[in-house]
Amino acid sequence: MSIGQKLTRWGGARVSRRLRRSIPILGTAIAVATIVSTVRRKGVVSGTLDTGLNAMPLVGALKNVVEIFRGRDFFPDRFPSASEVPVRRRVS
Length: 92
What we know:
Structural class: mainly alpha
């Protein structure tokens, strides 16, 4: 094995080790961003449950498959309040 191949393996191992250390931080950042948007859309309890189930590897995948076949969410979005609904005016 030449010196260049040894350096390539060593460098690849170092990069791999650094990525392994940073993945939990990236996963946490993605989870926080997901829970914030889901809670805004579904409410506190439903959004937290939805994100919690999606965070579990097998359970989240099964939940998403069942939701696809059902055609709707287990935890539906909240209905918009009267102040959030746009007023449509008729054009005569």
